[in-house]
């Protein structure tokens, strides 16, 4: 049940269970003018991985990271903590958009996952990583057939897969709704994203990166030989940098207008329960602790935390007119109530389970559901954004690309169409909101009619535009 007292958090409060669970002492705010080789705006996964990559390759670089709130305040500290090897939002999406590069992208994704896990061990980043893989569960008969086709494709491209029938999946995780599942045992696992992002901040500082929190960037100005980065707050500061990396994902639009056509910010919402009792664990099973998602266009994702709470999120994806973002949208009571009803329908044996934590936040999605990369200010500004919910792993790869843009312009990564080619742009308002609403209606219709994609979705598929989840 949802506690009746839980309501919108005040501005400035830590916005998720992950961020609030552990004590944290933030870095100071910037109160002076400093000079740097590279200024990174945003202390989430993208910004901190990029800082680490730059300092690891070239220790003499002066790198500064500026964060408007606290480390991980955005999606990096609010997500479900699913670490997946895919860089393309799944194999099917990768085949649709990058068929000629998919084997290379699959290889790079597996390599990225292995390197990330090795990094966690080498730097003692204790983020509760569990290499448990993922289950995609079918709740409709047509999804079972789709999973058989998906398993064949995954196996053909080198990934270990296992299909489970209804009895087998209910032996893993007992729900009356589950008709089958596709198990990817080597796809990655689960972690605590706040502990990860704070661990990255620690490593970055140990490498010599300067980190400033409560230091919102209010403007970027081209200047001879570099960029002036204006920092608001009291007292105000400024950074004079030769290069700037914009690592603000869903918050990028107001700061750098050329990014606006590339993505839309979509709000995703999450519940986290009280710890399960031994009897509640026994009632559902879940002995192997896999991360789980169901297989509709509007899907739920769910997992166990290290202390045996259930995180349950997804389904609603809310875009606000004008692509607005801000704390006012972080709580949505109707979505929290809907998530609660869906949870009880999925696990009726846990209908009395309390959910004391609930929150939301914006993710950035592109029309192809993969990250996009770009430059500006005569090549002195660099950005990566648009991970569409799979940024825990993909941000580390994006940091390699960003570091190559700054330090290794001949890198083969920069020749990938995945990196060079921009997604189909979103239109301006009012067409933007109308188009998103139309697609969402079409996805609801598909979910209600055995997955059959109507004319609008088929047209978008033909044009190479996403919207399949």
Mean pLDDT: 93
The CATH class designation of the largest domain is: Alpha Beta
Secondary-structure-based class equals alpha/beta
Biggest sheet, open or closed, and with what strands and sense?
8 strands, mixed
Unreliable segments of 5+ consecutive residues:
1-12
Radius of gyration, in Å, reads 22 Å
The fraction of residues in strands falls at 15-25%
CATH architecture heading of the largest domain: 2-Layer Sandwich
Percentage of helical residues?
25-40%
| Number of contiguous helices | 13
Number of strands: 18
CATH homologous superfamily designation of the largest domain? D-Amino Acid Oxidase, subunit A, domain 2
Please state the overall shape, judged from the principal axes of the Cα atoms: globular
CATH domain topology of the largest domain: D-Amino Acid Oxidase, Chain A, domain 2
Distance between the termini: 28 Å
Number of domains: 3
Kindly describe this structure.
- With 469 residues, this protein is of the alpha/beta class.
- Helix content is 32%, strand content 22%.
- The chain has 13 helices and 18 strands.
- It has helices at 17-21, 45-57, 91-97, 102-122, 141-156, 166-172, 193-206, 278-284, 333-346, 391-407, 417-420, 431-448, 455-463, and strands at 33-41, 63-66, 82-84, 134-138, 162-165, 180-184, 188-190, 210-212, 217-223, 226-231, 237-246, 264-272, 291-294, 300-304, 310-314, 357-365, 372-376, 381-385.
- Strand 14 and strand 15 (310-314) form a beta hairpin.
- It starts with 16 loop residues before the first helix and ends in a 6-residue tail after the last helix.
């Amino acid at each position: 049940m949802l506690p009746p007292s839980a309501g919108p958090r005040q501005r400035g409060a830590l916005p998720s269970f992950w961020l609030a669970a552990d004590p944290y002492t933030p870095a100071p705010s910037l109160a002076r003018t400093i000079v740097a080789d590279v200024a990174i705006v945003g202390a989430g996964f993208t910004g901190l991985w990029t800082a680490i990559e730059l300092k690891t390759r070239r220790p003499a670089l002066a790198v500064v990271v500026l964060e408007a709130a606290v480390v991980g305040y955005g999606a990096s500290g609010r997500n479900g903590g699913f670490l997946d090897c895919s860089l393309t939002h799944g194999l099917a999406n990768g085949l649709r958009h990058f068929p000629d590069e998919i084997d290379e992208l699959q290889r790079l994704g597996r390599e990225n996952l292995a390197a990330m896990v090795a990094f966690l061990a080498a730097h003692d980043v204790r983020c509760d990583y569990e290499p448990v893989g993922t289950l995609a569960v079918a709740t409709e008969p047509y999804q079972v057939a789709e999973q058989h086709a998906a398993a064949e494709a995954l196996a053909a491209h080198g990934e270990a897969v296992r299909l489970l029938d209804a009895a087998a999946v209910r032996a893993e995780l007992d729900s009356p709704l589950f008709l089958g599942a596709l198990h990817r045992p080597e796809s990655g696992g689960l972690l605590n994203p706040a502990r990860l992002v704070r661990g990255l901040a620690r490593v970055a500082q140990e490498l010599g990166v300067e980190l400033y929190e409560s230091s919102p960037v209010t403007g970027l100005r081209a200047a001879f030989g570099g960029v002036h980065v204006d920092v608001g707050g009291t007292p105000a500061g400024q950074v004079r940098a030769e290069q700037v990396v914009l690592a603000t994902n869903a918050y990028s639009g107001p700061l750098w207008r050329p990014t606006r056509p590339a993505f839309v910010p979509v709000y995703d919402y999450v519940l986290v329960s009280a710890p399960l009792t031994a009897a509640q664990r026994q009632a559902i099973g879940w002995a192997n602790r896999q991360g789980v998602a169901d297989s509709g266009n509007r899907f739920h994702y769910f997992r166990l935390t290290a202390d045996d709470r259930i995180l349950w999120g997804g389904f609603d994806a809310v875009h606000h007119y004008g692509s607005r973002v801000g704390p006012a949208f972080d709580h949505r009571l109707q979505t929290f109530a809907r998530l609660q009803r869906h949870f009880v329908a999925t696990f009726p044996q846990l209908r009395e389970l309390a959910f004391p934590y609930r929150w939301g936040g914006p993710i950035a999605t592109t029309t192809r559901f993969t990250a996009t990369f770009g430059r500006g200010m005569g090549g002195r500004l660099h950005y990566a954004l648009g991970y569409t919910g799979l940024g825990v792993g993909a941000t580390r790869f994006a940091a390699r690309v960003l570091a190559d843009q700054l330090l290794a312009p001949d890198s083969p990564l920069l020749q990938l169409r995945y990196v060079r080619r921009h997604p189909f742009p979103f239109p301006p308002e009012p067409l933007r909101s109308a188009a998103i609403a139309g697609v969402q209606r079409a996805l609801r219709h598909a979910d209600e009619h055995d997955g059959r994609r109507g004319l609008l979705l088929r047209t978008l598929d033909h044009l190479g535009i996403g919207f399949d989840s």
